[in-house]
Amino acid sequence: MPPTRIRLVTRGDDAGSCRDANTAIRDAFEKGILRNAGVMAPGPAFEEAARMLKDLKGLCVGLHATLTDEWNESRWGPVLGAAKVPSLVMADGTFFKDTGAVWKHTPANDEVLAEVAAQLARARAAGLHIRYIDVHMGFDWFPGLRPRLHDFARAERLVFGQGFLPALPKVDGQSADPVERFIAQLEAAQAGKTYLVVTHPAYDTDQMRAMTYGDRKPGEIAHERDRDRRLSMDERILEYCRTHGVEPIRYADLTEASEGVLHGDRPPGACPLKDGLTG
User: Fold this and answer.
1) Cβ neighbours of residue 36 closer than 8 Å, sequence gap 6 or more
2) pLDDT tens digits for 239-269?
3) Model pTM?
4) Domains, the chain, ranges and CATH?
5) How many whole angstroms separate alpha carbon 32 and alpha carbon 222?
6) Strand, helix or coil for residue 72
């Protein structure tokens, strides 16, 4: 094995949102480069996700703290119940579809923290050993909220996995092949650095093809998320990582001494890739 050139914190989000995400995240860990799984405690498939992931040795499980539900077909609400967090829900008791809509409803930070704490408690009660926390759809921009989330993470002895690591560099002249594009990004990465790769693995099934949000057409999201799953498991990528010193790691493998301040603000360019592994 060659010496490590770069490290990748490889994260799969949205476990608990549906069965197709749960099984894809499990398989991307067992057969691919995925090392971290973010669980949505309010999600309709959360209990299945907990059963499926809690005993996977070597998988780092995190709380994918959730205040929104973007899906048109699958609606869910807070773990605490709508009555305890009225500023976070629509009239039907479910979450708003995006953070902008939440903000227009004047969310109370106390209610946000209470709901996040309840989600963490539910995840732990289900037998999950939670090692990090991040935020679904980036709600940490609400004024005054990010420092409180940092404090919450510290108090719970969790890595706050939001925004302190850079994304892989973009490259010019990208190939039409997503595997080749991702490998080109790995080649362009600076030696000695640690990068964050965020994906949303799922299987392209009839159920997943019916899932939509916003103006996305049926099948579009299933195709994208299945591509994330396949890229995480593609043998060409696995071989490149093995032979070129690319080490997929867990949030739990990071330390403040080696990575800087784990609870710092988002540096320029430190954001999840919006289109799967390849940006």
Assistant:
1) 9, 10, 11, 12, 59, 60, 61, 62, 132, 161, 250, 251
2) 999 999 999 999 999 975 444 445 443 333 3
3) 0.91
4) 6-278 (3.20.20.370)
5) 19
6) coil
